[in-house]
Structure prediction request, 316 residues.
Amino acid sequence: MKRTLSILFTAAFLIGPGASQAAEEWGIDGEKKARFEAKVVDVLCELTGDCPADCGSGKRQLGLLKDDGTLILAVKNFDIFAGAADDLKGFCNKRIVADGLLINNPKMPLFALQYKKLAPDGKWSRANQFGKEWSKANGGKKAGQWFKNDPRIKKAIAEKGVFGIPGLKPKK
Amino acid sequence: MKKLLSALTVLAVAFFTVSGAHAAAAGKRVTVTGEIVDTWCYVTEIMYGLGTAHHQCAVWCAIGGIPVSVLGEDGNVYVVLKVEEDGTNVANPRIINIQTHKVTVDGDLYERDGVKYLIVTQVVDDKGIVNLTHEEYGIQPFGK
Ligand SMILES: [Cu+2]
Prediction:
C-alpha cells in the first residue's frame, strides 16, 4: 500500500519542472524504460479499418505503430489516473519519439507514455495533456486532484456510491 | 491470348497480395463473460483492482481515459474498443456506466502483439456489480 501511494504521488506531484526528459522508474513489476520512434495510430482504425477523422480527436484509444509492425497500446500518461489519448491525438498518423515505460506483464504488455516529441527532432513535452485540458475545461482548477473535483465523477459517486451499489455505504 | 491471360493472372495475384497485406483482418467471433475493470490498475497490481473496493478508482481511471477491459472468467484481459454502435472508447459514458459490472458480451476479438482487443457487438447480459470486495479491501487506493 505504501508502495502504491509512492508510485501514484511520485508520478503526479513530486517531479519538478526541471526533471530531465527521460523516462523514470515507477517501481511497477516488469517495467523497463523505453524510448522509440513510432507512428501514432487509432487502434480501432488500425485493426478494423473504421477510421474517423483525426484519429477520433481524443475519443479513440491510440497506439504506437513501430516500423517492424509492432502495435503498442498507450495505456497511461503522466497524470494521475489518466490515459494518453490527449497527448497523442495531435500527432495522428505522424511519427513521434515516445519515451516512457514498457511494462512486460504476463497478462498483457502495457505502455505508459511520459514524454513525447515529433520525430526526429521536435520539442520534448511531458505527457500531461489530460491534466492541462481538464484544467481548461474546469475554470483553471489545478489538475493534481482532478479525480476528486471532476463533475462527472461527483455525479456518478453521488448516484451509486463509492462501491457502485446505491445504498451500500462504507462503515464509519 | 495465353500471354494476355498470364499477364492478367500476374496482375491479379499482385493486386490481391498488396490489398491483402493492407486490409484489416477479420475478428474472431467470441462470447466473453467477466468483470469490467480498469486495465492499468488490474494489470499492474499497483493496488487491489477488482470489485466494489476498486469501483471508485475504476471510474476515475475510465473518465481519465485509460482503456477499460473485460476480465474474462478465463483469466484473459479483453481491452474494449467499441460497445455496440458507439465507436468511441475514451471516457465513454456507456462503458463507465457499467464499470465493475459482471457482463456477458458478444464481440469480435482481435489479437495483436500480446493484447486481446474486443469489439463488443452486443451486451447480452448485465448482472450489475456482484464482486463484493470492500469488506476485505476497503476503498482502493486511499481508503476514501
Ligand atoms: Cu485503481
Observations:
- The CA atoms of residues 36 and 70 of chain B lie 4 Å apart.
- The pocket of copper (II) ion is lined by residues B 38, 41, 47, 49, 54, 57, 61, 140-141 (CB under 6 Å).
